[in-house]
Amino acid sequence: MSENTCAYRQSKEEVAEWLNSPEYREMNFNRKALSINPSKACQPLGALLCALGIEGCLPFVHGSQGCAAYFRNTLNRHLREPVPTVSDSMTEDSAVFGGQANLIEGLKNAYQVYKPQMIAVFTSCMAEVIGDDLNAFIANARNAGSVPRDFPIAFAQTPSFVGSHITGWDNMFKALLQSLADPRHGRWTNGRLYVVPGFDAYPGNLREYKRLVSAMGIPMTMLPDATEAMDSPHTGEYRIYPGGTPMAELADALNASGFIFMQRYSTVGSYKFVKNVQKINTEVVTMPIGINNTDKFLMALQEMTGKPIPAELEKERGRAVDSAIDAHPYIHGKRFALFGDPDLLLGLTGFLLEMGGIPAHIVCTNGTEQFRKDIQAVLDASPFGKDCGVHVGRDLWHMRSLLMTEPVDMLIGDSHGKFNAKDANIPLVRIGFPIMDRVNLHRSPIVGYQGAINLVTMIANTFIDQVDCTCPDRLFELMR
Amino acid sequence: MFVNLSKLNLREECPLSDKGAPKLCLKALPGEGAERSCAFDGARVVLMPITDAAHVVHGPIACAGNSWDNRGARSSGAQLYRRGLTTDLMEMDVVYGGEKKLIQAIVEVAAKHRPKAVFVYATCLSALIGDDLEFACRQAQAQVPVPVIPVNAPGFLGDKNIGNRVSGEVLFQQVIGTAEPEGSHPFAINFIGEYNIAGDLWGVLPSLEAIGVKLQSCISGDARFDDLRTAHRAKLNILVCSKSLTNLVKQMEKKYGIPYIEGSFYGIHDTSKTLRAIAEAFGDADLIARTEDHIRQKEAETRALIAPYRQGLEGKRAVLFTGGVKTWSMVTTLKELGIEVLAGGTQNSTPEDFLRMKALMDPEAHIIEDTSAAGFLTLIKEKAPDLIVAGGKTKYLAHKTRTPFLDINHGRNLPYAGYNGMITFAKAVARTVFSPVWEKMQKPFPAGGDVP
Fold first, then answer.
1. CB atoms A161 and B89 under 8 Å
2. pLDDT value of residue A9
3. Domain residue limits at A150
4. Does domain B5-174 have CATH number 3.40.630.30?
5. Residue A299 falls inside a structural domain
6. What does pTM read for this prediction?
7. Which of B271, B300, B304, B301 is nearest to B203 (CA)?
8. Whole-number average pLDDT of chain A
9. How many CB pairs below 8 Å do chains A and B form together?
10. Do B31 and A109 touch (CB under 8 A)?
């Protein structure tokens, strides 16, 4: 209490200064119970994004209604698109008697009002705590005539108090396969590679994956494919279901000739299910951010399918390398702080290192010990990575202390980082989810060679802009 | 789908009672949509703009992870309220209970962040696992020198309005009347239900200053905790958003004898009307005269400034889909720009709001009953409005159907209150309706290569 009381006596200015001090940093890192400015969302939000990727699919939140409104709001703001979702609005009665009545009525109303081809049901924490049995409830809803008996419904348990949005994405994805994919037909395959994006709120990235795989001449299905749901062309008509992976291709998923997962941490359970349980030829790659990671992705494709990397992609690589060379003076030796989802951080760190950037602080709220090891291995492989601190399970208030005591030149992360960037007086380059205060960033890929060019452009030009805005007249220059 | 206003007798169907949630805020049907938020959100709406307090969410990451600093309520001073503070309950907490973690969290935040008070919010999860919020707050209170205030409005209580009411109750029971102001002002007032979205409050303050009225406290836009404690010494309450803080003004009237009037600061007409009502409530001849002068001057000024916009907008038709005070106040505001309201609806208004709206609108206009996305799309198709005035969740539906859209809820960046706000509003409406994006680009691709 002594130090606490001391804090009370300080003036506003003193407090501000104290918040920036190494002593405060230590106290801040000893914080146990309180999370301040967290950088993660909950499971059902991830499940919702996953479900949006199936054609004609209506995401359905089994739980109290506020959750669904929050998810919609967050996704609306990032994607600037309508996001169809319903909730069965559980209230106090449901807490006492269970949510079955809500689910039965909810499925009936949703089926009639929104005319989906399938419904993906997932839980919020309320339903999880009272222990609702989705399997039985859905069977009872079918018996009660809420939906036709053979109407496809996938369901996933996605408690908000376990994991984060990436766990929810994983759980929903696995549930889609378990509930709606036909069993495997022995050794026969449909000859298609299934590409699984993981929790990725950039339609630009999904388009880029499809373009790259198609350029390799590989027949593919993206599963799930939320590209259109996240970024549908304007036609003057609102379509509730603007596209996505066709139901038939979801049903045929377990007959794939192979699966490639574009992220590790948002697909942990699904990866195991596909590879170990279904025994399908499966690869997982580091999110292909930067040139090396993209090379590895294309080589994995080559190895899985035997298809050579076409000259067209080699030329594209050459352009990306050229852009990296042109921009290297602006990035080399600059210090960076990064935060976001584990897969994104793994890819971005590789990219920064290959540009000669110095990652100084990495904060991953929803990272695991395995993530810590994996990213440490990436850092250890480069002399530029030797002094980087990796902070798993920490929040953006921890990040603030890091920035104040060991300053960097740039912060990279989603919009929530803008408070830190302002306090530390450094630029924030917005990468990740959610981005609520800039337009169109999610439409440009940050993966593949084109993504590398985009990243180089964003980062280098932000530094150049900063010089133009802050330099004295005698250093103001036409060329930079 | 629609109820014709002239056929709907709201008084019969929705008795205006003091107790319980407003009857018109029908419960959301399971499966109909995800338009409405929850009681927890309603509580945050009211209390979060208390800028120098810490707001700790006792729950899983869902509730605070998605909602910190998401409402655009601005502060002229402290920024503490914008911080996302949560106990981020995880599986082990669910098994063993989260009370200890909560107590520790309150102590941590009170010690290190120098709040004037700590508001602690229950969520569905913490309520269901049986954490005793009041008990935890009392325990924490023994260790920290600032008030620790439990807010028991878990999401499953129902709609947003219920959360608003709970917050009003919390303020009345635990905050208002706990301190005395320095000195007194003959014309001290409170605003109730003004959240300073995008700086709305600041658009009204110049008028108050001009007529010599003092704002004792604003509940709760740009509020400082200590000002709220002295709110009981105001002479008059102005209920700005009648949505669900009606309970608060009524209780303040009973206990402290503070009369209340309702008012709105959207549009010239309502701004003037409310200022006039304030002056008349005090009954001071000088104040009334000053107010009339101010109104005359500002109305003339404002009308002159919006005239060019009105000229273009005359005869346009709008659909209004919002909540609370805006349901009726926006009808008048749009009329001032020559815009007719074809249909109006709300998810969160009180019966009083509806009655007012009804009185203002053309008897043939419709009330939107079906608040789902599906219902909304049918409405757009049938009415083909020139403009939709609504909140963020409707925005992209409107955009997809090529209907000019103006955000009136908390997603906006511009203040629309007061006389200056009206000018901003007129510009924003004109910019929305007359954008070339609605015209040129919606033509189909010229197939024959024949660009007009």
1. yes
2. 43
3. 43-180
4. no
5. yes
6. 0.93
7. B271
8. 95
9. 243
10. yes
